[in-house]
Write a structure and sequence with these properties.
Blueprint lengths: L14 E8 L9 E11 L3 E3 L5 E3 L8 E12 L2 E15 L4 E16 L11 H4 L2 E16 L3 E8 L17 E8 L7 E12 L3 E12 L3 E8 L3 E10 L2 E10 L10 E9 L6
Antiparallel strand pairs: 1-2, 1-16, 2-5, 3-4, 5-6, 6-7, 7-8, 8-9, 9-10, 10-11, 11-12, 12-13, 13-14, 14-15, 15-16
Length: about 280
Amino acid sequence: MLVNPATAGIEYIPVVALSFRKQWPGLDQSPYHLNASASLRVGNYDFYNPKMMINRSHFRNRERIGLGMGMYADQNGPQGNRGIVLAYAYHLPLDNSSVSMGLSGSMEQSLLDGTSWDPILPDDPLLSRLKETFYTFNANAGICYYGAEYIFGMAVNNLLPLRNKPDPSERVKQDFILHGAYVFRSRERISIEPSVNIRYLDYENIEYDIRAKMYIQHSHWICLSYRSYRALNLAAGIWVKGYYLAYDFEINLTPMVHYSAGTHGIHLGMNLGMRSY
């Protein structure tokens, strides 16, 4: 949902997730990323609470509106970003599939703290006084076509070409994202889901992720990914009594591997509408 607002509410039932990712542990001031998100489909649906009692929605809008909210925090040495995203999506059912269109608004706080730098010449008066904060507001849009076994989507982030706060001589550039996945049900309790995510950033850089994900008993999974910045990622997730826990490990295939043991991620989630196994 943070990437494509059209996916808000795509699961029908309320979903809450929390992720923490630490890159290159062992290096001083190495980057980290934290995000939390929640989404639901507003409408005439029933879902089960943790006590297995049915909760009924008071809204009646044919289950077509999806709402979502996400918050994130990035830190990379002296530079940090904090943001919040509010998303709205409209889901239009077709014969055996659906199309959703979404919009989101974002607010981001960027911080630059020169006091945390370690210059060659200590007590640099310019760096010690360098502490700036910028606020940025923008909008994102996306569209998705999905069914029970597939999803394909496109999103454009930073729709508004506003002035770049750190560098007013430039305008904020758009990011374009394409993503897709398809589930092959090879056996009754095992499914394989290949997927791809392509990003065209700032009209300059193209990044992509290629993944192969295997579901076991429709809930536990193992995933192997290759990322265009030359990294391999192995992740695994398990579902336990209505909650899921996932861990991923990423190893860089560049000379960076000689300086760090890799990147670690922990992900927690709760699906409020799914029965416990």
